[in-house]
Amino acid sequence: MKNSSHQTTNCGPVKPSERLLILDILRGFAIFAILLVNIHFYSRPLFVIFNLHDKSVSLLDYLVQAGTVLFVSEKFYSILALLFGIGMAIIFERTRIKKARFGSIYIRRLIGLFIIGITHALLFYAGDFIGNYAILGFFLIFFKNRKSKTILIFCLIILLFPVFKRIHSVLTYQPPNQTVQSPLSPEDLAKRRQERINRLVQKSVNAYGNGTISQIFTLRLKETRLQYSSLPFMGWKILSMFLLGLWCWKKGIVKSLAQNLNFIKKVMWISLIIGVLGCSFNLYNQLIPSRNLYLHILAFFGNQLGAPALGIFYITGIILLYYNGIGKKFFSLFSSVGRMAMSNYIFQSLIFTTIFYSYGLGLYYKTGYTLNLLFVVVFFPLQVILSNLWLKKFKYGPLEWVLRAFVYLKIPIMK
């Protein structure tokens, strides 16, 4: 036991000087893009977000909404998931070199992340993804010693599993018994559905917009429980990106990006084509929904592949621009936010729930998509400035420091 403890403490966190700047840039860019989506979840009920059939919004709001659905929504969680997989691979490699126990360090990291994530969900925002990553991260343990080819195969299988499941449900679909006539017409059913949505919307407004802290917590607790219970249905895409990140590290692509720019360029164009086609088809299906089950499958398939593909396009595009010197200074601005990504992510929730919820400015469900976009454009540069100021004095973000202390069982030097 004494030797094990000694090994654990010797395997400390990655020092700032050892970090890969491009990974911090990608994290920071993802934190910015996630705010472009999350600000709408902070500010309005879940049931009306990105409703492309809402005729009450202005044309500008509608364009911002459609653009967010097409180019941003779900794409940047894929980036963070891929970076999470790379992070797991880095921990595995460092523990192997230092002859420390990977399992204890990695599991403590996941437990620490889950504690931070569930706290964030209950206190600020039920849509937290940190806790989801922590839960799904346990599955990566089974792949740490697998060959890169095996990892890539499982990545594709896991990504496409929901599509296979949807195809099976369509092929085995049995139409309802036509001899039993519903007493309600399609119009009546649609009316009832809309009435239910209106009740749920009003419930959110009563809690988040006008309620007490106790009422807000009660609703957020229910939403958090629903979010975690949906993970078996929604976590496949995240897990596949974990594996893709692990594969990228094992293949040596991340460690020698400058030597793999030709390969990265090919991946960029392929992912752009797949991403635009898949996401466009899914958006079209949302705008003009079809009752054809096969078209529904194609739209689902398009989103399942298109969202992570566009995420990969953004990653590869930033890497190419950075290494070719185009916009290098601009992208470097994101690195400070990325170095303390978790702290910045939760800081966003703290600020904007205070702006929108009843205990703050009470702007819940009173702002449009365009005004929310302006909030992001104004706020994020401030976040860049604050991150730079913080990192001039400290090595880690506050939550990153707490997590490292918990994982490595020693207090990291903060200044």
Question: Could you characterize what this model shows?
Answer:
This protein has one domain. About 75% of the residues lie in helices and about 0% in strands. The chain is built from 18 helices and no strands. The chain has helices spanning about 1-10, 20-45, 60-70, 75-95, 100-125, 130-135, 150-170, 185-210, 215-230, 230-235, 235-250, 260-285, 295-325, 330, 335-340, 340-355, 370-395, 400-410. Helix 5 (about 100-125) runs antiparallel to helix 18. Mean pLDDT is about 90; it is low at about 1-10.
- The beta-strand count equals 0
Contiguous low-pLDDT stretches (5 residues minimum) are 1-9
Query: How many distinct helices?
Result: 18
SSE sequence, one letter per element: HHHHHHHHHHHHHHHHHH
* Protein structure class: mainly alpha
Strand content: under 5%
Largest sheet: none
Count of the separate structural domains: 1
Shape, per Cα inertia axes: globular
Radius of gyration: 23 Å
Alpha carbon gap, first and last residue: 31 Å
